[in-house]
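Standup notes, structure subgroup. Blocker cleared on the 2-phosphoglycolic acid input:
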Amino acid sequence: MTLGLATGSTPKGVYAELIKDHQENGTSYEKITTINLDEYIGLPPTDPNSYRHFMNSELFDHLDIQLENTHLPNGAAEDMSRECERYGQLIKDLVDIDLQLLGIGRNGHIGFNEPGTDFNSRTHVVHLAESTRKANARFFSSIEDVPAHALTMGIASILDSREIILLASGSAKAEAIRQLVNGEPDEQFPASALKLHPNVTIIADEEALSLVSQD
Ligand code: PGA
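Run returned:
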């Protein structure tokens, strides 16, 4: 089974629950493969702000998963277009993703697919939106330290997943969830691509859902 995983504050609670379940019930990840959405360009895997580091410390180090079966784009690769090819092909070789976990950015990004991303995109290099860098600056010593570029799985690959769960919590996500639920597919709001998928579940708290009924 292939799980598509996400980083950020949102999935941390899910990862804590998976670890608890593994420890208490012995649920095994020995035969699980994971593939992550994205990675900053320019941060080596050992950098505490790299998403590889996040995934190891928040999840993989606490499970019986084989690290070689856990995949993220390589933000330190020498040739980024080759790395995009490799990652896109890897997703295909895994015969797509069984279950993809997603967060959502305030601007509607999924992975690091910022507004304007082609719904047919595969793994690509993105220039991060200023609002995304500001939102993520909380993890860095200053906004200047937040990388300007990242590698992300494309929207077409996300839509190839068999099942998708999008998580959202807090009032900062309320407007994005309103647009997602009430809007039509529109490349200016990347998460709206999920409207084209037959099996998406949104799990959100009351604050994140607070604007949904207003349209
Ligand atoms: P967050 O990020 O979980 O840290 O809010 C989600 C996202 O930007 O996709």
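Discussed briefly. The CA atoms of residues 27 and 111 lie 27 Å apart.
Next: hand off to the docking folks.
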